[in-house]
Amino acid sequence: MRGAAWPLSTSLAGFAGYPKFWDYMAVKKGWRMDNKINRRDFLKTGLRFAVTSVAITACGDLIAMGEDRKKIGEITVGEDNFIIGVDVLKENKAVNFIFKGKKSILVYNDGKIKAFENICTHKGGPTKLQDDKMICQWHGAVFDPLTGRALKGPALLDSKLPAINLREQDEKIYVDV
């Protein structure tokens, strides 16, 4: 059925709920509902719409990635046990760091600074500070950022993230060994 033409009203029946748009297009583009559109033009229009949608979505993802790059990456604690300055932590709310080979998280919440090994008690996934709760990125277990205690499963409710002792000196945060 090469070169077949469909009435515009049939091929765009799904958009019938938008009469104002079609009234505008009828005036602006000279479209009429009894105009015919062939299969090739219909597919080209659909492809343009799909490509535009993907491009817009990709631009949004690129913008979001740019925002993530402004945040501090993972910090490796050196021999002096220094992690980060208090003012930087307050600005970022949470910072991932490695201490003696273990992934850890430093959290500023409710005016208090706490650190825990960043290993969920359920399956060992990493946690992330989100809306004043620490949430496992793998399965969604929720932990209290001040105590490390599990508030919501799948982690056992009596389990706790292992705490790391800290000391504050001259507006700097150190691991206290």
- How many DSSP H or I helices? 4
Q: Report the mean per-residue pLDDT as an integer.
A: 76
Largest sheet: 4 strands, mixed
Strand content: 25-35%
User: Strands of the biggest beta sheet: in what spatial order?
Assistant: 3-5-6-7
Integer count of domains: 2
Can you give the helix content as a percent range?
25-40%
- Shape by Cα distribution: elongated
Describe it:
- A 4-stranded mixed beta sheet has the order 3-5-6-7. A 4-stranded antiparallel beta sheet has the order 8-9-10-11, with no helix packed on it. Strands 4-13-12 form a 3-stranded antiparallel beta sheet.
- Strand 8 (127-130) and strand 9 form a beta hairpin.
- The chain has helices spanning 8-11, 19-29, 39-69, 86-92; strands spanning 5-7, 36-38, 75-76, 82-85, 94-99, 102-109, 112-117, 127-130, 133-136, 142-143, 150-152, 166-169, 172-175.
- It is elongated, with a radius of gyration of 28 Å.
- It has 177 residues and is an alpha+beta fold.
- The protein folds into 2 domains: 5-69, no CATH class; 75-175, Rieske [2Fe-2S] iron-sulphur domain (Rieske Iron-sulfur Protein, 3-layer Sandwich).
